[in-house]
């Protein structure tokens, strides 16, 4: 079967713009990777053990892949996805690989196909086209690479050119893996692998086991979370522990972007209702909304950049959740409103340049109508890159087209890969850099931007902006 290799991948087809894009992409391609938001397991780098077989590495944990096959009637258990009750799943890596390859046609035109093909090519040096007829050949090639010392996680980290990688942990995590990384010279403040404070499981009253989680929060922090005051003190203590482990940001994955600035007494009443098990859905939403304002207040004190990732209906596929648990492809985007939802937070802190709130969306329509004008009008707001269901080349292009006119380039924050798939990190950043090269090349070709400014901008987007925004170069600037 013929090989598949295009150096001009995703660059403009028009020859003049393509030549400009090649020059710009070459500048971006040589920049180190800043990965400020993702879900790589820190144990991967702390332990630095060899990767498992190719299927366990590339297919089983990737819900972009397994959910597509589920949509065509292939249950996740047949692809090795663990079950909540421990019931049997397929464990033979080659069987999983062949089954996946038999359905490869489902991914035509998708970013998942693009990422996987580029991972084969750029990470593993496999140039043969993937498909049912070549599945075993490619499996053997990848397996052979994984047996080499140069394909251990830390060696790949070096080869990928990653300067900083942020993982994401709950306040209930003891941060032991990050302590190991710090002891090895890889973690801690200013380290190469840092953590991110993600408090959803102790903030969202609708999160399974919320009250028990809050009890555990108090134990870890040495505070009495039986009271609202003690609860806030416990959150501050855990934030301090995360900062000591290298964290520069917090992350908040709420269903909506709603914020509320409640009086302390009202917030305390909401908290007490939740602890008694009497809170309803409206109470839970109000408490989440209020806590976003509280977290903004904490960020002004401790300097954590605040990321807000709203808009996902979690576990929409209840069968999938009941069978396999969270984060296996059962979530669905929903429409998300920002202008009125964020008004209480912005009224209080939106013009304070000491605060950085990075906004993301799963609702693409909001980029032009709401998010770009908001980011272009408030000192505290910045726009995060398209993520999750929107991290395709098409939306990355539309993002630049729709937000630049109102927010410019410098109210955005650079690319985030948002991935658990470690080997896809360089590929995803490369895709974003190619798309940005194409967009900037068009501005140059249309005589809207000089080439020297486009060259400076693409390096900013690829490297300098995310490093500065997420404080990976030291103190907030």
Automatic annotation (TrEMBL):
<dbReference type="GO" id="GO:0008880">
    <property type="term" value="F:glucuronate isomerase activity"/>
</dbReference>
<keyword id="KW-0413">Isomerase</keyword>
<dbReference type="Pfam" id="PF02614">
    <property type="entry name" value="UxaC"/>
</dbReference>
<comment type="pathway">
    <text>Carbohydrate metabolism; pentose and glucuronate interconversion.</text>
</comment>
<protein>
    <recommendedName>
        <fullName>Uronate isomerase</fullName>
        <ecNumber>5.3.1.12</ecNumber>
    </recommendedName>
</protein>
<dbReference type="InterPro" id="IPR003766">
    <property type="entry name" value="Uronate_isomerase"/>
</dbReference>
<comment type="similarity">
    <text>Belongs to the metallo-dependent hydrolases superfamily. Uronate isomerase family.</text>
</comment>
<dbReference type="InterPro" id="IPR032466">
    <property type="entry name" value="Metal_Hydrolase"/>
</dbReference>
